[in-house]
User: What shape does this take?
Amino acid sequence: MSTAAPRTAGPDRLWSVDEHLDDILATVRPLEPIELNLLDAQGCVLVEDVTVPVPLPPFDNSSMDGYAVRVADVAGASEQYPAALEVVGDVAAGAADLLHVGPGQAARIMTGAPLPPGAEAVVPVEWTDGGLGEGPATGMRARSLAPEGATGQVNVYRPAEARAHVRARGSDVRAGDRALAAGTVLGPPQISLLAAIGRGTVRVRPRPRVVVLSTGSELVQPDEELRPGQIYDSNSFALTAAARDAGAIAYRVGAVADDATTLRDTIEDQLVRADLMVTTGGVSVGAYDVVKEALSYAADEDEPGSGVDFRRLAMQPGKPQGFGSIGPDHTPLLALPGNPVSSYVSFELFVRPAIRTLMGLTDVHRPRARAKLTADRALASPRGRRQFLRGRYADGTVTPVGGAGSHLVAALAQANALIVVAEDAESVAPGTEVEVVLLG
Assistant: This one.
């Protein structure tokens, strides 16, 4: 949720990348926690420590299919002189009424079944004749095919130490232990642990709902026929996918034509399902830049504290940017430029950190690294602007992919990093160590 409109300045002000990002992160606040069922909480961030209520496993159990025995009864057992034990029955996983294993006895036991009273160890079935009297077994016959296998006699060919092949009660986690700490992102392993200790719900910050909307009368949806002057809408797909990759629940809205009233109405209609709005296109200085026309207002009398500020940033690509809040809940809105590379780079730098902040994460940025630049010639960069070039990073080196053009989508698809060229650099020679933003 946004708490206030961004600071504004004169139209000639050139904002730095860091200033713009600081404004966004100072305004966006983590979403309020809610209680969710486990599978609904996947990808969410825990807001409290989770303590183990019962030990895991809750009882001593077998880690093998085999026979539960007393150690003294199999001491010295060998293939030449096997220990012959009376089989008193089966112990299956989930068994409640357990057999008692006395001297000279064994119980056939399955993986995960409770260790029966009197037993001290488990010998794998491969160390026995499986109760068939035909030498070492390779496995157990199904009980339905050989019901007599649960009784009779079994020959054990190897000794076993105490507690062999027994999973001890509480050997995974003990009652009172901290299972997961607040701030943990819940993935499949964490959800598995929560289920294993009996937790059906958890208190988390929900995944933010992000609505992505592209603008432009020239945009056509994929699979439709292109007419003269038209292009396919790729930005809304790219940014929706990027929002989901960042952890959000993302909704893509079909492209809106260059009409300010239609755009404003569409945005207002979408606010009901948005924790964050992202638009692409229409933020520059052209006569048809409708996002700027529709949302350039310092404040709405009915919505105190709302407003969207449009800025020029000292960066390439992505100079024109917009940020603010709209609607009665002051929903944050980030307005990105329309060129595909500008849009995607802007998302990585500004929208992704906003999404991660809404989730309640503390580390909201893509990882960065230092890499040696490998290129055929020096990279040129406009002085006074921080440039982000697409690159391919591997083993401590980075190679530029494509040119600096903000429309080169094919080059973007080959990149896994952004090469950062500082504002005070006009040229970067091959072999220079540069900073890279790792994209995946």
